[in-house]
Design goal:
Shape of chain B: elongated
Radius of gyration of chain A: 21 Å
Oligomer: heterodimer
Helix content of chain A: 55-70%
Order of helices and strands of chain B: HHEEHEEHEEHEEEE
Helix content of chain B: 25-40%
Structural class of chain A: mainly alpha
Strand content of chain B: 15-25%
Low-confidence stretches of chain B: none
Order of helices and strands of chain A: EHEEHHHHHHHHE
Largest sheet of chain A: 2 strands, antiparallel
Largest interface: A-B, 39 and 49 residues
Shape of chain A: globular
Number of helices of chain A: 9
Distance between the termini of chain A: 22 Å
Structural class of chain B: alpha+beta
Number of strands of chain B: 10
Strand content of chain A: 5-15%
Chain lengths: ~240, ~260
C-alpha cells in the first residue's frame, strides 16, 4: 500500500528553486564582468593547464564588451541572492531543520562509505535519516560557499568601506580569486547534484517540487511475512 | 479476499487520488511560477533604456537599483575609512595606463596649462602648476583599482584636494553636493560626491613615483581618488566646478554606476 511521506517543507523547496535562476543570473553577469580582465589560469611548472575561458566560449555566450551591463545586473541580483540565503538559513535554524543538515561527528567517515556505495564499490550504505552523510556535507558546504561568495563579493565591491572583509580575505587580489573559485565550485556542485538527482529518480525529484515522497508500506492484512525493502532513494 | 462493492473506494485508490491532486497542484504552481519568473526576466531584460541625461546607457530598473544601492552603501562611507597604505618599495615601477580618452590631443604643451576653477557667476580662477607645487605635498602609496578587475600598487604625490579648497578659500563652494572635473578639451569628464572629493586621501597628483607625472598618466595634474574606481581618476584636469546637481560623467553616460565608490 502506498503512503504519502512528507519530506521537504515549502520554505526549503521555495528557497531551493528561487536560488536556481538567481545563481544563473549571478554567474552570467559575473562572466560579463570577468571578461574585462580574464587573467586566471592554472599554471604548473610553466605549463598552462586551464585558461578560464577560451574565446569561443565567450563568443558563444556573447559575453565580450558588456562590463557595465554585467555590473548593473550583478549589483541588483546580489540582493536577492543574499536575501534568499539569509531566509533559508534563518528557516533551517528556527524550524530545527539544521539538525538534518549539519554534518555530525560520524558524517565524514560515513560520507566516504556513501561515495563507495554510489560508485558501486560497496554494497550497503550507512543508515541515514532525511539526508545521508555525503548530502549533509555537500548541502552544508554549499551554504558556507554561498556565504563565502557574499563575503568575498563585499570585499571586492567595497574594499574601503568593508576594509575588514578585504583584509580577512587576504587582500583585494585574493578576494577576487576566491570569489571566482567559489563560482567554479558551484558549477561542480551543480553537475554532481544533477547527476545524483537523475540517479535517485522521479520520486526523489518530485519531493523537491511537491514536498512529499511515496513509500510502499506492506498491508498487514494482506501480508503476514514482513518483507520490507530499504528505501532505494539516497537523495 | 472478498470482492468489494464497485462503488466504495479502496484506501489505495484514495491515496492515488490524493497523490494525483497534490502532484497536479504543486507542479502547476511550479510551472506557473517558473513561467512568471521567465516573463519577469524578459520584461527586465527588454525594459526601456533610460532617457539620456546625466546617466544613460542602462535599463531603467537597473539604473534605479544602482542608485538605490549607492544610497545604501553611502551610509557606510565615512572619512574615517581610509584606503590601505603600502610601503613605497611595493609600488609598481611600470604604472599601468588604461586609455587616453580626453588626453589624446596632439601638440598639448603642459607649460601652457592652467587649472581652471569655476567660481560663482562663472568667473574662472586660474592656477598654474608651480603655485600648486608650492603648497604642502601629500604622498600616497595604495592599491589603484580598475573597474575591469585589476589592481596595482601605485605611488602618487600631489596636493590634497581639501587643501586646495582651503588655500583658495573655496570652502563655501565646496559645500555643494558635487564636484565636476573635466579634461582641457572637455572629452572626458567626471562627477564626484562631496565626501569622496574632500576625502583626506584624494589628491591632485603632479608626481608619480616621485617624478613628474608622464603625459600618458595625465600630466601635468591628474586626480587620484583612492575611494573610487580608476574611471573616476581623471587624467589631465582642466576645469573644476561645484554644483548641487550631479555633474555629467563620461562613464555614467555609458551604463556605469555614477557613484563607482569602493
Amino acid at each position: 500500500m502506498k503512503l504519502i511521506k512528507e519530506k521537504h517543507p515549502l520554505v526549503m523547496r521555495w528557497t531551493h528553486w528561487v536560488n536556481f535562476p538567481i545563481l544563473t543570473i549571478m554567474i552570467w553577469s559575473g562572466l560579463l564582468i570577468y571578461w574585462a580582465n580574464d587573467v586566471y589560469k592554472i599554471t604548473i611548472f610553466g605549463h598552462t593547464f586551464v585558461r578560464f575561458f577560451p574565446d569561443w566560449f565567450y563568443n558563444w555566450l556573447s559575453i565580450p564588451h558588456r562590463l557595465s551591463e554585467g555590473m548593473a545586473f550583478h549589483f541588483l541580483f546580489m540582493w536577492f541572492f543574499t536575501l534568499n540565503g539569509v531566509f533559508y538559513v534563518l528557516y533551517t535554524l528556527i524550524s530545527g531543520e539544521w539538525r538534518e543538515l549539519i554534518p555530525n561527528r560520524h558524517s565524514f567517515k560515513e560520507a566516504w562509505l556513501v561515495v563507495l556505495h554510489d560508485l558501486h564499490i560497496r554494497k550497503t550504505a550507512p543508515p541515514q535519516k532525511k539526508y545521508n552523510a555525503a548530502q549533509r556535507i555537500a548541502y552544508t558546504a554549499i551554504i558556507v560557499m554561498g556565504a563565502g561568495s557574499v563575503f568575498t563579493g563585499l570585499a571586492i565591491y567595497k574594499p574601503v568601506q568593508f576594509y575588514w572583509a578585504t583584509w580577512l580575505c587576504g587582500g583585494y587580489h585574493l578576494a577576487r580569486i576566491l570569489h571566482f573559485a567559489l563560482t567554479i565550485g558551484y558549477l561542480l556542485f551543480f553537475v554532481i547534484h544533477v547527476v545524483q538527482v537523475v540517479l535517485a529518480g522521479w520520486n526523489n525529484f518530485r519531493s523537491v517540487v511537491s514536498g512529499f515522497e511515496i513509500v510502499e508500506k506492506p498491508d498487514p492484512e494482506e501480508i503476514t511475512v514482513l518483507n520490507e525493502t530499504p528505501p532505494v532513494s539516497l537523495n | 479476499m472478498e470482492i468489494k462493492d464497485q462503488k466504495t473506494t479502496t484506501p489505495d485508490e484514495l491515496i492515488n487520488k490524493k497523490i494525483k491532486r497534490r502532484n497536479f497542484i504543486s507542479f502547476a504552481t511550479f510551472l506557473g511560477l517558473g513561467a512568471a519568473a521567465a516573463g519577469g526576466w524578459e520584461a527586465l531584460y527588454h525594459s526601456p533604456e533610460e532617457t539620456s541625461g546625466i546617466t544613460a546607457g542602462a535599463r531603467k530598473p537597473l539604473r534605479k537599483a544602482l542608485n538605490k544601492t549607492e544610497l545604501f552603501f553611502r551610509r557606510f562611507f565615512s572619512n574615517d575609512h581610509h584606503v590601505k597604505i603600502y610601503p613605497k618599495s611595493m609600488a609598481a615601477k611600470e604604472v599601468r595606463t588604461n586609455g587616453d580618452i580626453g588626453i589624446d590631443d596632439t601638440g598639448f604643451n603642459p607649460a601652457d596649462w592652467k587649472l581652471e576653477i569655476v567660481k560663482p557667476g562663472g568667473d574662472l580662477l586660474k592656477i598654474g602648476i608651480d603655485e600648486i607645487k608650492a603648497l604642502p605635498k601629500t604622498e600616497i602609496v595604495y592599491s589603484f583599482k580598475c573597474v575591469e578587475g585589476w589592481d596595482q600598487i601605485q605611488y602618487w604625490g600631489g596636493l590634497k584636494f581639501a587643501d586646495l579648497v582651503d588655500h583658495y578659500g573655496l570652502q563655501r563652494l565646496a559645500q555643494k553636493d558635487y564636484v565636476g572635473m573635466e579634461t582641457p578639451n572637455g572629452e572626458y569628464y567626471i562627477g564626484l560626491d562631496r565626501e569622496s572629493a574632500l576625502h583626506p586621501q584624494t589628491i591632485l597628483a603632479y608626481e608619480m613615483n616621485a617624478k613628474p607625472v608622464p603625459l600618458e598618466n595625465g600630466a601635468p595634474l591628474r586626480l587620484i581618488i583612492p575611494v573610487k574606481y580608476g574611471i573616476k581618476n581623471l587624467k589631465r584636469i582642466g576645469k573644476i566646478s561645484f554644483s548641487d546637481r550631479r555633474p555629467r560623467d563620461y562613464w555614467a553616460e555609458q551604463g556605469y554606476d555614477y557613484y563607482s565608490g569602493l
